[in-house]
Amino acid sequence: MIENTKINKMQLYILTVVTGTGSSMLYGIGEKAKQDAWIVVILAMLGGMVLILLYCWLLKLFPDATLFHMFENTFNKYIAKVISFLYVLYFAIIASHVIGDITTLTSLYILSETPEIVIEIIITLVAMYGVFLGIETFARFGILVFIFIVPLVFFFFIGPILSNRANFQQLLPVLENGWLPIIKETFPIIFTNPFGEIVVFLMIIPYVTNNKKVLHIGILSMLSIGVLFLIITITNIITIGPTFIEISLYPTIETVRGINILNFIQKVEGTAVFLFLILNYMKIMLLLFAASTGANILFNTKNYRKYIIPISVIVFVLSHLSIQDVVLHFFIDTKIVPYAIGIPFDLGFILLLLGVYYIKKLFKLKIKQ
Amino acid sequence: MKRIIKIILAMIITLTSLTSCWGSRELDDMALVSGLAIDDHPEGYEITVQIMLPRVAASEHAASSLAVRNFSEHGESVFQTIRRLIRRLSRKAFFSHTQVIIVHEDVAREKLFEAMDFFFRDPELRGDAVFLIAKDVKAKDVLSILTAMDPITGVSVRKILESMQKYFQANRDLDFHAVVASILSDGIDASVRGVTVKGDLEKAKKIPDSQESEPMAYIVIEDLAILKEGKLIGWLKDDDIKGYNNLIAKVQNTIITVPCSETNFFNLETTRFKNKYKVVEENGKVKVKVKHNVTASIGEIGCDINITDSKEIKRLEKIFAEEFVMNSYRTLEKLQKEFKTDIIGFGEVIHRQKPKLWKTLKDDWNKHFETLDVEITAKVKIDKTGKNTNNPLDKYLKK
After folding, report:
1. Are A108 and B123 an interchain contact pair (Cβ–Cβ within 8 Å)?
2. Considering CB atoms only, which of A111, A173, A254 is closest to B23?
3. Contacts of A109 in chain B (CB under 8 A)
4. Range of the domain at B219
5. One domain for residues B376 and B260
6. Which contacts (CB < 8 Å, 24+ apart) does range B357-361 have?
7. Contact A257 B128 (CB under 8 A)
8. Per the CB < 8 Å rule, is A257 touching B126?
9. What is the mean pLDDT of residues B359-381?
10. What residues contact residue B122 under an 8 Å CB cut-off, 6+ apart?
11. Last residue of a domain, one of B218, B236, B254
12. Is the pLDDT of residue A128 over 80?
């Protein structure tokens, strides 16, 4: 049922970091907190670490198991199947949002005349192929991406400073409006991209060699994601300022546009678009993989590859629908997804799992291994 | 056999999808815009784009043939007008390389926001086009001046402005993005450079000065336009720009002149110019203390003075410090009394240093600015004297 392809711990770390840094770096986090958005990032990172602790706790109870196995062992068979199915849908919905995001980005800045559906088809096809090849393949691709993004993120930070467009004073005054806006921003974010979607992490654990102790990898990857985000957020604030971050659709790209070092290195926003394209690819592939593997477990079959095509079709259709109305998409992304989808799937069901497990233990009921 | 089919199929799919023909933009089909001019027109706007002619601009004999062409069109709104340009251009305009956006003062007086929304929203236009307001001449006339040194007028204007920023007078809001940021900010209002044309305009519109050594008409960047809440309300003239320069402290390397007798002057070249702002609350009122810290070297001496005497140097430093303070106060007074607009950013300073206080002031900032108490001091340090010490012709100089 679980194939023999394995990834080692470093690949797990890289996979998690690269997936986590996917979509939000584009949009920026915590705009409502204005210049304190970096505090939001730090707090959200800490919140994400709490989530990681929860997930690793689960892994201690159920070693070498995916989330769906845990459901099957703890809950009644039918409830477990229903919840697992909901999770497959969850992964599909997030994947469709991500594809929608990249499509809008690409068609806005690069391919303005190509119909968006064509961009989506190509992205979906390539992602499908990546998933088809197996987790080891795209984990190795992830290493390449990782080697790319870390210097690029630092470049995006140093670039505006060297081009004299960075004004550190824009970080002041700190805590101008108090802690309330910060806290209001943090809570939804912990549960959506990027920090909450680490629940997908739980689906790939069986593929990792020596997966007894993954806690330190979890914490390390959360820390890395947080640091990368912090750098980007601070760069955005010091270059374009909090007002522009609120009104721009893609603040990071606006920041990168301003880089003009010695009139020599300029107009590098293509690099930024490329970076986000690749990062989001990893995210899509991992989500598709998680959904396919999940469906594989759900329907008790041997090969997850059967499910790639149907799930991809669903994801494709959903993403095409989601970009029809930009304003609605935005509204759903910020107001509905964190509360209606993020909290139950990242936290709710996990707590339920833990709760039922311990209750069963308390009453010494049988727990299948 | 099956394998061969699969391989061929894969090749076909890969090759056809990698040709990137769909969104392709051939250079031959693009009209690269180097400058944009917006004038007032009874119908709405008149927009002029300056298109670069690539083959000519890159060639060696640039001065002898036209490297740019201007196209004008009028319409009711900005986007509509730009689209109408398609009637005239054989290629579609491509705005990414726009160097300069010039808006006529009449447009700036009444409808700047409406004009700017398009430029701000379109993803092709970067925020780094330089923004200027044309006075006394139409904006399109500024773009029609052909100079010998830089065949593309847009680039030429931008270069003039950039070297002014470094060596003469620095404006705070140079490019388009910065202007919009200043307009949007509560604590400061935008100030934009003015551009005009001096000389004989009609003659200069032809092939550039290849026949004469002196240009018939040339572009001059002068004056500072004050945009209160995004609308042009007045101009700050040359003398007052000195004070503005001091208060903004963006230009590091500029000159300051003090008369030392009826006809002669001392000139200092500043090498470092930094300001310190401090907000204090005295007796319930807000006070901003500005201190100019200037490091300078002696550029030109017009009177008899012994530079090797440190007492004389100190005297000189004092004279210049007083000059800075006087200029700054003069500009400040003009801004407070006549224009009632804070283009220097005292609001932002208060915002950063005393946010709670700022909350009470920010709604009506320009009104509070009128009565703002500002104390300006300056400290000048002269550390270099150029290549010589005293002038050997000293004895011929007036005292």
Report:
1. yes
2. A111
3. 123
4. 28-236
5. yes
6. B357/B279, B357/B281, B357/B286, B358/B187, B361/B286
7. yes
8. yes
9. 84
10. B95
11. B236
12. yes
Asked whether B145 and B42 are in contact (CB, 8 A), the reply is no
Question: Which residues in B have their CB inside 8 Å of a CB on A?
Answer: 17, 22-23, 96, 123, 126-128, 177, 181, 184-185, 351-353, 355
Phi, psi of A367 (to 5 degrees): -125, 120
CB contact under 8 A, B352 and A173: yes
Is B128 in contact with A260 (Cβ distance < 8 A)?
yes
Do residue A114 and residue B96 have CB atoms under 8 angstroms apart? no
Which structure tokens are listed for A315?
């994801």
Q: Which two tokens stand for residue A223?
A: 């820390």
Q: Tokens 């000293």 — which residue?
A: B394
Is residue B201 assigned to a domain?
Answer: yes
What b/e string do you get for B267-290 counting C-beta neighbours within 10 Å, with b at 16 or more? Answer: ebbbeebebebebeeeeeebebeb
* Domain coverage including residue A75: 9-368
Model pLDDT for residues A222-260, shown as the tens digit of each residue: 899 889 889 988 998 888 888 888 887 788 888 888 888
pLDDT at A124: 92
Q: Are residues B293 and B307 in the same domain?
A: yes
Is A143 contained in some domain?
A: yes
The tally of domains found in chain A comes to 1
Q: Do A260 and B355 touch (CB under 8 A)?
A: no
Residue A186 has pLDDT above 60, yes or no: yes
Q: How close is the nearest chain B Cα to the Cα of A231, in Å?
A: 22
**Which of B19 and B331 is assigned the larger pLDDT?**
B331
Partners of residue B183 in chain A, C-beta under 8 Å: none
> Which of B17, B22, B355 is closest, CB to CB, to A176?
B355
Task: Tell me whether residue A2 is in a domain.
Answer: no
Residues B323 and B390 in one domain: yes
Kindly state the DSSP code that residue A23 receives in the 8-state scheme.
Answer: T
Interface residues of chain A, partner chain B, Cβ below 8 Å:
108-114, 118, 122, 169, 172-173, 176, 240-241, 243-244, 254, 257-258, 260, 267
CB atoms inside a 10 Å sphere around CB B2: 6
Pairwise CB contact (< 8 Å): A267 & B96: yes
From B123, B184, B355, residue closest to A109, measured CB to CB: B123
> Which whole-number Å values give the CA distances from A193 to A21, A214, B191, in the listed order?
8, 21, 40
| pLDDT surpassing 70 at residue A368 | no
**Does the pLDDT of residue B204 top 70, yes or no?**
no
Task: For residues A200 and A190, give the distance between their C-alpha atoms in angstroms, rounded to a whole number.
Answer: 14
| pLDDT for residue B323 | 86
- On whether both B200 and B179 belong to a single domain, the answer is yes
Per the structure, the count of domains in chain B is 2
Please check whether residues B175 and B319 belong to one and the same domain: no
| pLDDT tops 70 at residue A117 | yes
CATH of the domain at B290: 3.30.300.210
Rounded average pLDDT over B33-55 = 85
What's the mean per-residue pLDDT of chain A?
83
- Matching residue, tokens 């200037």: B294
Spatial separation of the C-alpha atoms in residues A43 and A175, rounded to whole Å: 14
- Chain A's closest residue to B352, CA to CA, is A173
ipTM for the predicted complex: 0.77
Structure confidence at residue B4 (pLDDT):
92
- Cα torsion at B81, B26, B153, A160 (round to 10°)? 100
Confidence of residue B203 (pLDDT cuts 50, 70, 90): low
pLDDT class of A310 with cuts at 50, 70, 90: very high
pLDDT value, residue A1: 40
| A261 to chain B, closest Cα gap in Å | 13
Structural domain contains residue A1: no
Question: Which residue from A minimizes the CA distance to B183?
Answer: A243
CB contact under 8 A, B177 and A258: yes
